[in-house]
Amino acid sequence: MRVICVTGMPAAGKEEFQKVAAEEGYVIVRMGDVVREEARRRGLPITDAAVGGMAHEERQKHGVAVWAGRTIPHVRAERVCIDGLRSPAELATFRKAFGHGLVVFAVTAPAEMRWERVQRRRREDDAKNWEEFRRRDGRERGWGLEEVVAAADVTIVNEGTLDEFYSAVRKALRELDA
Q1: pLDDT mean values, one per 10 residues, the chain (178 residues)
Q2: pTM (2 d.p.)
Q3: N or C: which terminal CB in the chain sees fewer CB atoms within 10 Å?
């Protein structure tokens, strides 16, 4: 079994990373989908404030690795890419479950570029303005996201064209199999 995790700040390019991973034969498991599924189950609106608030509350009640633990049962294929790793405790949970063979990829991009992407993609739980965007960044930094990005096995900077990014991801994933 090969399990990779992709991490990074909101709109850094994790979804685009996943597209390439899927093309390379990875089944995508999104921690955010697990969180949104729980929010829907509770009848919450799918907004950044409601979903992020509920996710944060669950971390406070059940520990910062709660979403990692709830994601592990969804990992059922030979090649899996987990999206949404945000804290050192989550990383430790995944390392315990999948061993040292787990490979963590970080996708990075400047805040201004990420904000432009948020405005273009218009996902239902995205921040609606710059202040909300910065608050979400702060909330995720508070979970230890920067530490996870710094601890990644592979970092891919996403500041160029989409084709350049796809090429970099494809190359990095193929190097795992070499």
Answers
A1: 95 95 97 94 90 91 95 95 93 95 96 94 82 91 92 97 97 92
A2: 0.88
A3: C
